[in-house]
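Continuing the batch. This is chain 6 of the set; chains 1 through 5 are on the previous pages. Same settings as before, nothing changed between runs. Recording input and output for traceability.
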Amino acid sequence: MKGFVIAGTGSGVGKTSITTGLLSLLAKKNVVQAYKVGPDFIDPMYHTIATGRQSRNLDSFMMTEEKLRQLVGYTSRDADLCVVEGVRGLFEGLSGRTDECSTAEMAKMLGFPVILVINARSLTRSVAAIVRGFQAFDPDVNIAGVIMNNVSGPQHERKLREAMDEYTDVDIIGIVRRDTDNAIGQRHLGLNTITDSEKEGISFLENMVSDIDTGMLFDIAGSCRQDLPTSSPYTERESAGIRAAVPSDPAYCFYYYENIECMRASGIDVQFFRPTEGDGLPDADVYYLGGGYPELYADQIAENRDFREGLRTASEDGKIVIGECGGLMSLCRNIIPEDGVPRPAIGVFDADARLTKNRHGPSYVIAGTTPENPLFPNMTIRAHEFHYSEIELKGNGSYPFGYDIFRGTGIKDKKDGLVYKNTVGAYMHQHALSTDDWFGPIMEKLSSGKWNDRMRETIIGKWPDENGHRIPMISSALALRTNPESGSETFDRLRESALRTIRSALRPMSIEPVNPHRRAFAPFCVHMR
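Output for chain 6:
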C-alpha cells in the first residue's frame, strides 16, 4: 500500500482544509482511503464526504502498533492511495520528551513519507529554517514535500521558492493562496459537523488546493510502498439474530466507526435511525448512543416521546444501553443547554446534564471496570473524553459507577459510568480496538442463561397466568397469529407490531416463533415453557 501523511508545523495551519480539498480532488480518479491521527470525530466526517469512503481514526494511545498497521491494511486493501491527516504539530504528543501519540510516531509506524503544511503568512527565508529544523529534529521522519499555505501573491511565492531551493532539499508540492472568505466554521467541540447531503459545502476546498501538484504526491506516496496485513482486526462471529439500534444524526454523530464495525463482525445487525428528525425507537436488543451535540437539539429530543420513553422502558426492562458523552447526557432526566432552561431527556438516571463554559479535555483516559459494571467486566479501558457539560446527580440519583479512572476525569471523584441494570452511561469514548474483543462480554451476556432467565422473567412472565389472563399486546399477538389471512390493514399492522415485540423477546434466547401460517399456536406455547 502506498500513502503519505499530511502534517503541520502546529495547529491552525490549515491541515484539515488542505487535506479535505486534496481528498476530494484525488478521489475523482482514484480510490482514496483517508485516516485521521488522534481522537477526532469531526475531521473524519469531512474526509468521508470528500472520498465517499469511511475515514478512520489512528490512535497509538488506544491501539498497539500491530493493530494500527492491521487496521490500515484491512481498510485500504482495495484502495489506490492512503492519505493520513496528522494531529496538531508534527511532533506534538503525550509529553515533551517522546513522540508517543504524535503524528511523527504514526508516520514511522506506517512507513509513510510526510508532506509538511506551513503557514507561510509573512514568512520567506524563515520557511527554510523551519523545514531544516523539522528534518534535523527526527531524521527517521521522512519529510518529502512541503505545502505553503496563506501565500499572498506571486512575489511572495517567488521568495518562498528561492529560499527552499537555496537552503533545503525538499520540494514545494503546492501553493495555497490566502483566502479569508473560505474557511470551515467552528464551534465548542471543534469544526462544524457536515453530513452526506453537504458535499457541495467542501467544493471550495477543492478549488483552494487546485495548484498542488498531485502527480508529485503520487510519486512521493509510491516511493515508500508498505506491505501491511489485510486480515480483519476484529473477532468474527456468526450471526446471532441480535439487533443493535444506533442514533445517527447531528445530535448523535461522534462514533468510532470501528465500534460499529466490531459489532457487525460479532454478528449483530446494526440499524441506524435519526431521533432528532422524528424517527421512533427501533426494536433492538442493544442501544448504543454516541456523543455529539444533544444540547443543541434538546428541543427535538424532548419532542420525540417515542424515542425517550422507549429507551427508558428498554433500560427498565434490562436491555443493554450504552451511552457515551452526549449519550450519557441524554440518559439523564434533563438536558440544560446554555439558556439554563431544562429540556426533558430520556430519564434513566435521576440527574441533570448541564452545559457549562468549562472545558473537560480533550484528554486520554485509562480506566478499570468495577464489579458493578454489567457490560465490560474485568477490563482495563483506554479511551478519551472531551465535553463542556457536567452531570448533577439529584436526591434519588445514587448509582454505582462502572469505571475507576486512573487517567482522566470522568463524572466525578475519578469515577465514570453511571450504572442502572444493563445501562451504562459514561463520558469516555471507548475504541473497539483498544481491547482484544470489545463486544465479546456483551455477546456472552446476550447468550447467557442469566440473560435468558431475566428475559423470561420480564417478558414471558407476562404471559397467561393460571387464570388465563394475558396482557393486551400478547393476547393480540396470539390472536393475530391465528388469523394471518385476515386481510385487514389494521390487523396486518397490529400483527407486524406484535410479531416485532415477540421476536425482540425471543431473539436473545435463540427461539424462533412458530410458522405464522399455522393456525395452532400450541408449539409456540411449548417453546415458552
